[in-house]
Design goal:
- The chain has 184 residues and is of the alpha+beta class.
- It has two domains: 4-59; 81-181, no CATH class.
- It is built from four helices and five strands.
- The longest helix is centred in the N-terminal third of the chain and has 40 residues, at 20-59.
- The radius of gyration is 37 Å and the shape is elongated.
- The model has no long low-confidence stretch (mean pLDDT 78).
């Protein structure tokens, strides 16, 4: 009986012929091993860093002090004069005052004859608005109500510049005031 090497010599093949399947598997396993090594190193460094941060935080050496920027509603630059008052209907007190001459809540009933600020405020609020204008003055009243609060916004704009431009700034101002004072 002939050995395997002798049979291969007769057929003209070398017993040292490379196995292509083995080469492809070796390359694939090298790539997998590299990826596994990178993953292990990443996890090791990440966990070490997070534990170091935790230890420093517990020791009081690392203080996270995140604070949101302070917000103050500003009326956009406008050449007309503005008087803005925001009242809390529940406590009957003034919350925001910008050149306002009114000290007590006006006892007027707000009639809903316009939808000026409704689109700039969240859904679910009950908003009654009233606006009256003349050639040199705009008077705006709005009653903004939710289950947690009730605000009365009064705005008086007067001047000699076009008042329609000023009227377009009212929704932005109402939105700014709402987000500042509804969170309290």
């Amino acid at each position: 009986m002939l050995s395997k090497d002798e049979i291969l010599k007769k057929k003209g093949r070398s017993p040292e012929q490379l196995d292509l399947v083995k080469d492809l598997d070796a390359n694939n396993s090298k790539t997998k091993n590299r990826l596994l090594l990178i993953l292990i190193m990443f996890l090791f460094v990440g966990s070490s860093t997070s534990l170091w941060f935790y230890r420093e935080y517990r020791a009081g050496n690392l203080i996270f002090n995140f604070s949101l920027p302070k917000f103050s509603p500003n009326i956009s630059v406008d050449d007309n004069s503005w008087q803005v008052c925001l009242f809390d209907n529940q406590s009957k007190s003034i919350i925001y005052n910008k050149n306002c001459t009114i000290t007590n809540i006006p006892s007027v009933t707000v009639k809903n004859n316009i939808n000026l600020i409704k689109s700039s405020l969240p859904n679910g609020l009950i908003i009654d608005e009233q606006i009256s204008s003349s050639s040199n003055e705009i008077n705006y009243l709005s009653n903004i109500t939710s289950p947690q609060f009730s605000f009365l916004l009064t705005i008086k704009i007067f001047g000699s510049y076009p008042l329609d431009i000023s009227q377009n700034l009212i929704p932005k101002l109402a939105s700014d005031l709402y987000w500042k004072y509804s969170q309290k």
